[in-house]
Design a protein that fits this description.
It contains 1 helix and 27 strands. The protein is an all-beta fold. The chain has one domain (3-255).
Length: 258
């Protein structure tokens, strides 16, 4: 039941964040600038990684009730940095991962794994934005549900996401109101580093309110228009909180309840 909130991890190798315990909450953290990845350091680097441990070792247990909310995972602010590493965004490969909430996260990465859950049971993956860092291999990054140890992912809600690819295996999922990105420049202010929505983006008002988080990654209330926007950010021309504080007003962060 740990709470990891509002931290910055800048310039790292291996994993930026790890969550191995039940009930942990990772909220509004920034993980950026992965350096020296595999094979040089022997690790595959992840912005966030989890795995289960059970009687038979890694991948034979469960990790339950983890929340990943409003985190920004940015592979590299300088893709040409001499120590640039390819970063898996949210990598959960050895489940089971039971009743996880993965919402309002932004993943900008030079890898196939944007958000990948192997052995997800229940839970939801909602209103995330996953985009390629540089448009070259490896990538483009996906939102993926896969099996773990022969157990398929099952019963996950996947809704209101923006991603460059999807690979959603398993059974009994609810999958709707997701958009595969073909032209990020037509949707975002300045991709890949500013993925707030343009005024004429197809993602505006295109989501479902059912299961959508009530605030976006900037903690702006949803919706700001006739409907919920797709992705991690709700377009907010006026950016006024429901409690009458404006976005950027420092007092808003203390007054609002998230």
């Amino acid at each position: 039941d740990a709470r990891i909130r509002s931290n910055v991890v800048d310039g790292f190798s291996a994993d930026g964040l790890r969550g191995l315990g039940d009930g942990d909450r990772f909220e509004y953290n920034v993980v950026k600038n992965a350096r020296v990845g595999a094979p040089e350091d022997g690790n595959h680097d992840d912005g966030f990684q989890s795995w289960s441990v059970g009687p038979g070792g890694v991948g034979t247990g469960e990790v339950r009730d983890v929340v990943l909310r409003g985190n920004v995972i940015l592979n590299d602010e300088d893709p040409d940095h001499p120590l640039h590493a390819t970063l898996q965004g949210i990598g959960c490969f050895d489940g089971l991962f039971v009743d996880w909430v993965v919402e309002n996260n932004v993943v900008v990465t030079d890898h196939w794994h944007g958000i990948s859950l192997y052995g997800a049971i229940g839970g939801r993956v909602v209103n995330n934005t996953v985009i390629d860092l540089n448009g070259v291999a490896p990538g483009p990054p996906w939102i993926m549900l896969n099996s773990s140890g022969g157990t398929p992912s099952q019963g996950v809600l996947v809704r209101n996401n923006l991603a460059t690819d999807y690979s959603l295996g398993g059974v009994g999922h609810t999958i709707d109101h997701n958009l595969e990105l073909a032209d990020p420049a037509a949707l975002f202010v300045a991709p890949p580093f500013d993925v707030h929505l343009l005024a004429d983006a197809d993602a505006l008002d295109a989501g479902s309110a059912a299961g959508a988080p009530p605030r976006d990654a900037d903690r702006v209330p949803r919706p700001q228009g006739p409907g919920v926007d797709l992705g991690a950010y709700e377009r907010c021309p006026v950016c006024v909180f429901s409690d009458d504080f404006e976005l950027g007003d420092a007092s808003a962060w203390g007054a609002a309840s998230f």
